[in-house]
Every structure is written in C-alpha cells, then in structure tokens.
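re: ur question from the group chat, yeah i did fold both. here u go
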Amino acid sequence: MISFERIKDPTLLTALWQNCFDDATEVIETFWRKTEGHSLVFAALDGETPVSMLCALPTELVNDCGETLRAAYLYAVCTAPAYRRRGLCAALLAYAENELRDYDACMLVPDGEAMFRYYEKRGYRTAFYHSRFELPARKSEAKITRLSADAYRALRELQLYGSFVSYDASLLALQQCASEASGAGLYRIETADTVCCAAAERWGDCLLFKELLPYCPEAAAALAEMLGSAKAIVRTQGGDVPFGMVKPLHGAALPEKSYLGFAFD
C-alpha cells in the first residue's frame, strides 16, 4: 500500500535518488549535508520502501515591485522506474504542495520539453527565462577573485534587477561545492567597465557559467582562459530561453516572467 510522508532522515532516499539519476554517492551525500535543517523532503512509500521523492528547498521570489514571496524550489523529483506511469509523482506533488501551505509558490526546472508539458497539466506554468551565449576563451586584464558562498550572495543580490529568485548562502554553498569539484568555483570578475559575479563549472574543454551577472563577454572569456578552457557557455539574466516553471499556492499573484538562476543541475 502506498503512503505519503515527510521524511526526517533523507539518507534513506539515497538509493532511490541514485537509481533515478545515476549520481555518485558522494554528490548525494553532499546535498543532504549542505541542506540539512533547510530542506523539506517528501516521499511515496510502498510499505517501508521509498518509490518516489522530492526535495523542497526554501527560497524567496522577488517580484517586479521588490516584494518578497516565500517559494519552495522542488528538486530531485523522481520515481523508481518500476513504479512509473501510476500517477505517483502527481500524487506526491499534490501532497507536498499541501504540506507547503505556508509558502506562496512552488518552482521547479523540468528535464526536457516533455516534462514541461507534464508539469503544465499539474498547474505549473513557464515563468523563468534566461539568455544563453557561447564564446571562445580570451586573455584579458580582468581581475578575478574567488568568492565564498556568503560573498557571492552579497554580490549577486546587488547585480539582480526586476523579478528574480533569491537564495540564501546555504543553498549557494551547494553550487560552490559542485563548481569547485569540477575545478572551477564562484568568482568576482572586475573589468575596466563592470564588476561581475560568476558561478562556473568545468566540463571538458568548456567552462559552463551556471550564472554570470551582469553579462559581460570579456569577463566570461577571461575566466575561461584563466581556467584553461577553450570556450565558455554562459547563462545570464534576461532573454527568452525557457528554464523553469512556477505554481501559485493559495492564489498568490506571481510574476509573469522572472529569473531563477541556479538549477543545481
């Protein structure tokens, strides 16, 4: 018999996570450690066996007027292969949304076009967009400094405008871990014209900017060159590339177009 619960010991879900996403055990354990005391974890259980799961990460959604809404970023949403196509994920989403009654909205990043359609049927709409650019590495006189999660958050909040998602330092530490494990990190990049914050990961000969604020080709090219990458792929605020979805809870009025930034993907 299937039951739905909030899970107090999320490490019980490590095997399910690994079965669905094929992530290394140390990556999953780092997530549990970095989000301990911050995230809410929900699961569908067949007896005592977890068969579907999701994590709700507390964030703030800033609207165009500067007002702050409580939002839960739903992460690692998955169902064991043998239990798919039974409506378990939809039922778990409904259960979690009810448990998150103190929040104004739930957000998530679908994995591919088919999942955008799946979540749309469950009340989510596309609301988070970004721009994406690719450029070759190039030497520059830019000054590059590595940042802690706290320092990155402070600089990030200064750079953002309009509607955006604000993360606390505990969540930005997740991105810091992923970036540093790849051989990159969180950075302040100062050119003659501007100061940027950048969260980057190395992928082969490519430097992937999970975020660069504001967009500055010189800053992206300079960091790619410093880290020995041939090119940079950059995500930044603005643009029309669909990225994430949102669902209002309790009738909350939400921005039509906003910036999410990190997917921790």
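okk and heres the other one u asked abt
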Amino acid sequence: MRLEFWLLLLFLALGAWLPLTRSVSVTEPPALATEPTLPAAPTEPTLSFRIQSAVYLFIIVVDGLRPDALQRAQTPNIDRLWQSGLYSWQAQTVSPSLTLPAVASLFTGLRPERHRVLWNSWMPERGQIAVPTVFDLAHEAQISTAAFVGKRKLQHLFQPQIPLQIIRGEAGHVLDSALEYISQHRPRLVFLHLSDVDDAGHRHGWMTLQQLRAVERVDQAVGRLMQKLSELEMLKGSVIILTSDHGGHGRIHGTDDPRDMTIPWILWTPEIETGQEIARTIYIYDTAATALAALGLTIPEEWEGLPLLEAFPEATLQSERP
C-alpha cells in the first residue's frame, strides 16, 4: 500500500511538470521538390502587431517566384524582410495562375471570375479593369500613388490618373526609374513589378541555375530600394509587402499544379522585430485588403480578400463606415 501511494504521488508530479515543457521549432521556405534548405530564424506562435497606418506602402511582385527558390538562391535582402516580418510560404494565387488575372486579384480583393480579367496579354481594345482597385481607392482618398512595371499588359489594371511607367529589362532598370521618381515625389503607395524570374523560367526552366541568378538580381534590387528609403528617411514609416503572382514548373505556369499555385507572401515593417509565420492560409487577393488596412482605409464589403489581422487588428469593412 505504501509503495502504491508513493507511485501515485510520482505520477501526479510528472503530470504537473510535463505541460510546462515545449520544444522550439524553426520555420523555413518549404521545398516543393527535394532540395537543400537554408537555415531560418526560430519562431514563436504568431502574435498580433498593432501597426499604425503606413506613411508609405510598397507592394513588390516578383513575377514567377516560387517559395523554394528562396532556399537555393542567395537572397540576403529578402531574407531580412521575412526574418523580421510576417510571412507565409504556402500562400496561394488564383486560377488561372497567370500574371494579369493574378495581379488583378491582388489589386481588387476579388477572384478572376468577379473582376473579369481573364486574359493574359496586352489587348488595348479591352480597355481598363472595370472594378475599383487599391490604386483607385487610394487616389480617391487623395493618397499619392505610382507604379513601375516590367510588362505592358499590366497597363490594363491602371486608370489614366495613376502614374505608371512601363520599363522593359532587368530589375535594376525598373529600380533606376522607380528610385528617381520616389526621390522626387515620395508617393505613398508604390507598386513594383519585377519580371526577371518569370522571364528566366520561360527561357531556361523553373529552378534552373539561370533562374536562381535572376532571383538574386531581384534581391539586389530589393536591397537598393531598402537602402534608398533609409537614405530618404522613409523606411521607418514604410510597410513593404513582397509576394509573387504565380510559381511555375518546367518552362510553364498557368495550371493548378502546386508549383504554379504556391507563392511567398511577406509583410515587413520596422515595428516587427522577429519573423513570424502567418497561421492562416493567405490568398493573393488578401493583399488588397491588407494594403487598404495599412493605409488606414476601409475595405469594400464586396471584397473577398481579408486583411492580415495579425498586423492590422483594427481594419474595418466599408459597411462599418459611420
């Protein structure tokens, strides 16, 4: 009887102690194929960050970037963003996983069947997108905007009143034009579309050495942007969202293959010190709602996209406007 009594006490003591222990895990960009991985920063459970409305918001779309490309390429500047920001390596684009429908969803908070941009080439007879975009709503709120893109077909997504430059060539050329304009005008909402990775994927194949070199060129451009914003004393008031429109496999994309549909999604702001993985699934059309929340604007009720509440817990829908 005495032995059973002491065994019972030992069992109860162990039961009280075990819940206090936990393991520390690391999170990294996932491999969509069997490939080496880069070390990643330890993470804690996702926290809520009460971020003030951004003075400046930069949305960067790296055309054709798969999350696992960030494992194999050397990307110290993009690493800085996700290691001190909020991120997802399992974010999803829309179907069809093509640039124009995807970026239209990113701008409008809607799926392609609702914004109706279902084509993927420059077709001037189709005119401009027929539903309001983040840029339209910002313009109505008297927030200055600018866009710098590497493909002319994206002109379909901008109304004439939005400053737009189409710059063909590598990311460095796009940045040259963007940084000159930003230095002179300091727009509050900026869109950068960098096509290097997609161009290399179609020419040489996804995850080839040539494409990884293109990822590194884009990373250098991101570093130049961060450095210039710091010099202009704009970085402390900035929110940066870096994502992609689609991935790819072989030399193609546009299918429902996970390699085409899965994209990285990163939100950086100086107010976040340690990288935090986003718990829920992020969709590309959540970017629009998150952008409006970052700018302190209300989100149209009809939008399907949701703001990233971990960063902007006080974001409101249009229907809640007094």
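fwiw on the second one: The domain at 29-320 is CATH 3.40.720.10 (Alkaline Phosphatase, subunit A). The longest strand covers residues 85-92. idk if thats what u expected
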